[in-house]
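Title: Prediction job returns without error message
Component: structure pipeline
Severity: low
Priority: P3
Assignee: unassigned

Description:
Job completed but the reporter wants confirmation the result is attached to the right record. Sequence as submitted:
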Amino acid sequence: MEFVKFKELEERIRALVGEHALLRKKNKELEERFEKELLEVEEAKNKIRALNEERDAVRTKVDALLELLQGIDVPK
């Protein structure tokens, strides 16, 4: 009778070890995916930052040109 209980315990332990291995694998996959997503977000932030800088530079040039144009007298 005791041998049956040990066999059941062994089966449960083997099942738990198998589940643990699957969970570790899934966790590793999720961590890798998370790191990849973080890199993509960082790249997107850098691109947005560069585009904002470019927009600001263009805005500054347009404002300067508008100021020059305001100084011109147009004959009527």
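Comment from assignee: result matches the submitted record. The chain is about 90% helix and 0% strand.
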